[in-house]
Amino acid sequence: MSFNLYFVRHGQTIFNHYERMQGWSNAPLTDKGISDGYAAGDRLENIRFDAAYSSDLQRAIQTAEFVLSRNKQSGDLKTPEQLQQFREQFFGFFEGLPSKKSSQLVAEKNGLENMETYNDLMTNLTQDEVMDAMHVADPTGDAEDAQMFWARVDKGMELLRRNTRDGQNILVVSHGTLIRNLVAKYGSHEQAAEKPENGSITIFEVSDEDMKLKVYNDTTTKW
């Protein structure tokens, strides 16, 4: 059994625009963010989706609705099923803080020299190491570490496998770091070092035991 899994990163939010950490926090879509969703929908308009999901955070739900509103092949499928398992990584104490400041605090707490931005962390450490470092640096201990994150996301993937048949196309609208983490795990660290754009499309071929990365961070192709 295998199926095609189309991940879309939600549209730009206010927190994205001002480069603030945004995990489980809800920030509204900007005008660009709304356009991101419709643009992704236009590029996916000819894909027949057999099911559609989003995280249960508002920015992902809205983006999924924009994508589905432009789809010409999926009939009455216009509303995503919301799954908490596909939420963004939880950043705990760092939620809402400027990304650069948060990254500097994480680097300082973990003794990581010359890492001043989130991109520095994501480039020089593995995705799991970044999550673990953030958990260590969080004075409240609430930020998800790698074990917490994968326990949640793997349950989401198990749900998809149980409810999907061979050859189907599935839409999931989710979040940047979650998508990067999946790309690092099933593609490569080098690919995941590239930040996925808002509204970008990432495609996996999912089997019973594995996932193969087919497309990452595509913002131009009309499928």
TrEMBL record:
Binding-site positions, substrate: R9, H10, G11, Q12, T13, I14, F15, N16, R59
Top-level taxonomic group: Bacteria
Cellular component GO terms, alphabetical: cytosol
InterPro entries in UniProt: His_Pase_superF_clade-1 (IPR013078), His_PPase_superfam (IPR029033), Phosphoglycerate_Mutase (IPR051695)
GO terms, molecular function: fructose-2,6-bisphosphate 2-phosphatase activity
Keywords assigned: Hydrolase
PANTHER family in UniProt: FRUCTOSE-2,6-BISPHOSPHATASE TIGAR
Protein name: Probable phosphoglycerate mutase
